[in-house]
Amino acid sequence: MSPLSDFPPATIEAFLCSCAGEWIALRSQFAPLNPSQDDDAWHDSERGEIKVDYLAPACSEAPGGLRVTAPGGTVTTLTFLADGQVLLASSSQETTAGTWQFWPDGTMELGSPWGDGKVSERIWFAKPNLRLRSSLAHRADGKPGRASFSTEIRRVSRPPSQAL
Q1: From start to end of 1-116, where are the E strands?
Q2: With a threshold of 0.90, does the pTM exceed it?
């Protein structure tokens, strides 16, 4: 299935297929200001390239998965299970379990552990080659820990020019 053939994605399978590709990302992170921090320490922005591969499901009931290679070479595999669970396996951590929900408006919501708290992430497509992500981490006491917003543009290659 081509990422452009089903837009906006109407199913979890179409959404995962739409994620496949090479992406140029700009992420802005925000953290609550501690009294000991200077006024400019509450935010940071970084640019990077992300490669996402769609992984076909192991069984017909599961929607499939994604392998994400982030800047620096960290690889995370997300295996989506039919019951709304997602298994996150990273090259730098043990496998953890989270949750996923695909909403009727074409957005994906992921929940995963973050230390003693949790992270809620929402991913959606504004256009077939423009993906947006927002993330909010909550500490165990319920207070926000950090937030981020990412804009990701799919890297596309030009078709070869045709000789006249």
Answers
A1: 21-30, 43-55, 64-69, 75-80, 85-90, 96-102, 108-114
A2: no
Extract the tokens encoding 4. Answer: 């452009």
**Closest by CA position to 102, among listed 19, 13, 21:** 13
Domains in the chain, CATH or no CATH each: 12-32+46-154 (2.40.128.20)
Residues 129 and 7: their CA atoms lie apart, in Å, by 10
User: What Cα–Cα distance (Å) separates residue 62 from each residue in 16, 43, 58, 116?
Assistant: 12, 38, 7, 29
**One pLDDT digit (tens) per residue for the chain, 164 residues:** 444 556 889 999 999 999 999 999 999 988 775 655 556 666 678 889 999 999 999 888 899 999 999 888 889 999 999 999 999 898 766 778 999 999 999 999 999 988 888 999 999 999 999 999 999 999 888 888 889 999 999 998 766 665 55
CA 88 – CA 98 distance, rounded (Å): 7
Angular region, 90: left φ>0, alpha ψ -120 to 50, beta rest:
beta
Distances (CA, A) of 42 to 46, 83, 96, 136, 149: 14, 37, 28, 14, 14
How far apart are the C-alpha atoms of 89 and 39, rounded to whole Å?
36
